[in-house]
Amino acid sequence: MKKRISIIVPCYNEHEVINIYHEEVIKFLNDDKYDFKIIFVNDGSKDNSLEIMKDLAQKDNRILYVSFSRNFGKEAAMYAGLEAAKKINSDAAFIMDVDLQDPPYLIPKMLEEYENGYSLVYAKQKNRNGAKKSTTLFALAFYKIYSFFTGDKELSGGARDYSLLDRKVIDAFLSIKDHKRFTKGIYHYVGFNKKCIEFEYEKRVAGDTKWGFRKLLKYAFLGISEFSEFYLIIPKLVGFILFILLGVDVGFQIYNAVSANSFAAFNWSGIRIDFIALLIDIVLFYLFKLLYDVRNQSRHRPIYIEDESNIESVNNEAE
Ligand code: UDP
Ligand code: MG
Question: I want to staple 6 with a disulfide (CB 3.0 to 4.6 A). Which of 75, 90, 140, 167 is the partner?
């Protein structure tokens, strides 16, 4: 029996590109080898994207769609797509953009790596030649800051959501129920053996990007804050400054007392304030920590994710 491979395609107001995408992507689907399904996720489009998907589904029985009641964002669309892929028993699933910035010509190569045993194959742009300069700079800065705070060294400039997930990764991804989602962070979090494939930057084939600068900034910050304890930087920085102040104050008062040759010249009041402020800051630090513990527990992320085991092979009856 052929393996079932689903291709999940989130779409938001994409009437200009859905047909172009379909025409292009099917050139790279080897139906003799795999049972392909293309799952369009209509993320609350206000144009006629859904009608276009329905028309395509009439003509091509590989096409399925899931349509949202309103715009929930690309992250929700990817989650819904993977849930659908699981429902129809897919062996693996691609996630790709509809605007052809995720080149379909990589599909056979990514499948090859999947067959070689990689659980997660993801694509990355080699460079961003041709992309907007400001977005490129923003992306570069983001990945540096992101890896500084989260410790994730895998994610680097040019990484996209374009990926192929085997069944184990689909299950692991769906087991992460975070409401504020950042797929690239989840990929790192779930682990598994990964393969990165690089490609040349591609421009959007038609239509406009759905990400304004503010939306992008918010998303970037969400990625950092969801996969690190970002806010601890505040009590840490304040604590550092207070510590220096305390040192300078103590030094200054010692200098005063020594030059006056009298202990009475030593003024405690400023030092006391620095010290109390430092104590309050330490308390704040632990309060922040506690809040992070509460957040981590309430997200119900799995305690571990299994890759393989031979536990199932044991007969339950004792010998
Ligand atoms: N998208 C979506 N929901 C949104 C925004 C975008 O499903 O709220 C889809 C969009 O239709 C496209 C993909 O996500 O298939 C990437 O969007 P876009 O090309 O606008 O992003 P960019 O390439 O500029 O980062
Ligand atoms: Mg795009």
Answer: 90
Nearest CA to ligand 1 atom 22: 209
Q: Tens of pLDDT along 154-213?
A: 887 778 999 999 999 999 999 999 999 999 999 999 999 999 999 999 899 999 998 888
State the Cα–Cα distance between residues 229 and 148, nearest whole angstrom: 11
Cα dihedral 208→209→214→215 (10° resolution): 130
- The CA radius of gyration of the chain, in Å to the nearest whole number, is 26
Which of 210, 214, 217 has most ligand 1 atoms within 8 Å of its beta carbon, as the pocket-test mutant? 210
The pTM of the full predicted model, rounded to 2 decimals, is 0.89
| Atom in ligand 1 nearest the alpha carbon of residue 204 | 19
Interval 9-17 mean pLDDT? 97
160 lines ligand 1 (CB under 6 A): no
Angle, nearest 10°, between helix axes 167-175 and 183-190? 110
Do the beta carbons of residue 141 and residue 103 sit within 8 Å? Answer: no
- Residue position matching structure tokens 């069944």: 167
Q: What span, in angstroms and rounded, lies between the C-alpha atoms of 68 and 53? A: 13
d(CA 222, CA 263): 53
Angle between helix 18-25 and 49-59 (nearest 10): 30
Is 205 within 8 Å of 159 (Cβ atoms)? no
As a whole number of angstroms, the distance between CA 140 and CA 65 comes to: 34
Report d(CA 120, CA 112) in Å as an integer: 12
Residue nearest to atom 10 of ligand 1 (CA): 11
